[in-house]
């Protein structure tokens, strides 16, 4: 679908967090604010525009450290954005994530009624994200941003979530994270898979042509152009339950690791089954130039090597023939670990809150984030597996199954419990730097 002429992105107007991968290792903090005084909220936007780093700056004033600012629909309304302008935003954004919970599979214990306050409520207006290589530099970034919101009586900090890198540089289930990212025309940042063409800029940044030739941008253009949508989700991980399920369904320690790889699609090191089907290869997993260079339809259409229902193949089918055109549903995914690790070998969860702060970035909340979540993660029809759900993140109730193709007989596991519980989330709009200034100049 991609054409031959690349789009020139206005990198100096795009927030760096939209396009730039996080440093490794990293520390991060999410801060949420409520705006009670529109004038103070606008002043916050003016100050933030001087703090936020653009995608054109290869090095920020604090090195590999940056601050980003995003707003919910409630936040735009609190600043005084006119209703006709709000109506030009994606309808999923206007509804908010909590209102979309049933469709997203956030039901039962994952339902908004059980989310960490104030996530999912009308009180969350502005979300500030600071990212740095370590905790010391993170605090420096927060200190640099603090004048932007302190001493504004009409702006109140109401929530904070700190994230970090585990010593293993993996997420709590033990897998290397953040491996696969799309290439974006005009960004200057290569995608992680050299076998796939970059996506059109309009798939991820508003105001540019997308894969279908359309241009999505809220109005007025001063507000929407060079912005993106962001979905933020706090996902609690039941590490003990995950380990116990693997142990209970494996025949040996080696089989346990193979089962873990078949469920995820990668070995713990990040080495993909597609390139190392029989054993882990830590050198491959650590090599960003090799660990993502593979396709499915060309090399493994039936899923005997990488099961069709495994986590990474569901989240990104690459070139596979599935319900839905994969290029139209690609996403920028970023994750930040929170909470301490569960000690090695422990098979019972200890009551500590640990998990992943998941962040989606894209221009289409509906056909990117929501489509993947509802059609690929929490359903199996797209690859012929009826109602089978993602074995790692699916909203299971203890009756789920996972099928692993193999010859001569497939392997089928049952009784999948819920390993991941949603603890909160927000749909946000991350404006361009000029849009931050536009918001700051609003009047009653």
Automatic annotation (TrEMBL):
Residues 28-144 form the DyP dimeric alpha+beta barrel domain. GO terms for molecular function: heme binding; metal ion binding; peroxidase activity. One of its GO terms (cellular component) is cytosol. It comes from the Bacteria. Pfam families: DyP_N. Keywords: Iron, Metal-binding, Oxidoreductase, Peroxidase. Its cofactor is heme b. NCBIfam families: Dyp_perox_fam. Belongs to the DyP-type peroxidase family. This is Dyp-type peroxidase family.
